[in-house]
């Protein structure tokens, strides 16, 4: 019998060929998986970044939106009354009583925002004044450079500067006479004291202090309890000039003199802030309201001689 299988060819698949095909498919699958993973990571990162940016913008926008009693809104009456109550109950020997705090607080509350408040003296009420004028600008002037630096370090929100007084309380009469004799020159009631050589004018304050249109000024310093103490003559005179020299804003400036029963406060208040401007006064606090004056003015008070060399009879 003829063998029909003689020409039959046996084809064998080499194992290498099968392995190579499987390997290619695995590499392709791995490559696709890596691309998919990279795409997912990129998508997730992009969404998280967008969410974070949106959330941050929302927080910033929310923080800039006034909240009741905060932001640009005035302090609620209950907060003001609470601050005044606890300040007046302070254990500090030299703290102001409620009857002195209230008139100043009332003026600050009615002051147009932002209110510019200048205070001569760092006192137990320093933080109170800053809080009551929270929407405005509050600046403190003190004769003790170390205390001013200490206060700013302890309370960074406080804006305090030191000034070197060259006056002596015992020289008050001579200084007043000299100032009134120079009323048409160095000691004019309307001027930029930065360029003045008036003996009672403070000309070494930071430049911007002379540029601010002050709405309220409180003179509660420097010290003046002994003959060689600087006294408050320069502070009172400077307050009067700053008030009369305003170029814009509210033409009126409220000037408060604390310890109003003191001789320096009584005399210099009468000479440079003027009795016709005294709104009210008691033993502790004098409240003056001064108006902007013309640059050509050569007298401090309406009923005062421009070359007067005398001093008020109360001296």
From TrEMBL:
It comes from the Eukaryota. It is found in: Golgi apparatus membrane. It is a single-pass membrane protein. GO terms for biological process: xylan biosynthetic process. Pfam families: IRX15_IRX15L_GXM (PF21729). The chain crosses the membrane at residues 26-45. The keyword Transmembrane helix applies. GO terms for cellular component: Golgi membrane. Keywords: Membrane, Transmembrane, Transmembrane helix. InterPro entries: IRX15/GXM/AGM. Signal peptide: none annotated. PANTHER family: OS11G0490100 PROTEIN. This is Polysaccharide biosynthesis domain-containing protein. It comes from Clitoria ternatea (Butterfly pea).
């Amino acid at each position: 019998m003829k063998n029909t299988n003689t020409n039959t060819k046996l084809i064998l698949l080499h194992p290498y060929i099968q392995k190579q095909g499987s390997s290619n498919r695995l590499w392709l699958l791995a490559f696709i998986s890596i691309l998919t993973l990279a795409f997912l990571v990129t998508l997730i990162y992009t969404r998280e970044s967008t969410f974070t940016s949106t959330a941050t913008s929302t927080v910033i926008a929310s923080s800039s939106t006034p909240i009741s009693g905060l932001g640009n809104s005035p302090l609620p009456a209950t907060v003001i009354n609470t601050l005044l109550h606890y300040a007046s109950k302070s254990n500090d020997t030299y703290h102001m009583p409620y009857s002195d705090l209230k008139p100043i607080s009332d003026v600050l509350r009615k002051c147009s925002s932002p209110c510019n408040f200048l205070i001569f003296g760092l006192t137990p009420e320093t933080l109170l004044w800053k809080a009551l004028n929270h929407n405005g600008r509050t600046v403190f002037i003190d004769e003790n450079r170390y205390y001013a630096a200490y206060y700013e370090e302890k309370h960074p929100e406080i804006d305090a500067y030191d000034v070197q007084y060259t006056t002596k309380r015992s020289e008050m009469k001579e200084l007043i006479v000299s100032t009134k004799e120079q009323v048409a020159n160095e000691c004019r009631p309307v001027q930029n004291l930065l360029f003045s050589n008036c003996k009672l004018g403070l000309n070494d304050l930071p430049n911007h202090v002379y540029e601010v249109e002050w709405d309220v000024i409180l003179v509660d310093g420097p010290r003046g309890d002994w003959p060689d103490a600087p006294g408050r003559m320069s502070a009172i005179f400077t307050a009067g000039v700053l008030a009369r020299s305003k170029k814009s804003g509210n033409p009126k400036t409220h000037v408060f003199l604390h310890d109003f029963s003191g001789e320096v406060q009584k005399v210099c208040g009468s000479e440079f802030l003027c009795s016709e401007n005294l709104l009210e006064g008691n033993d502790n606090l004098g409240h003056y309201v001064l108006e902007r004056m013309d640059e050509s003015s050569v007298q401090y008070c309406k009923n005062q001689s421009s070359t007067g060399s005398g001093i008020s009879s109360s001296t």
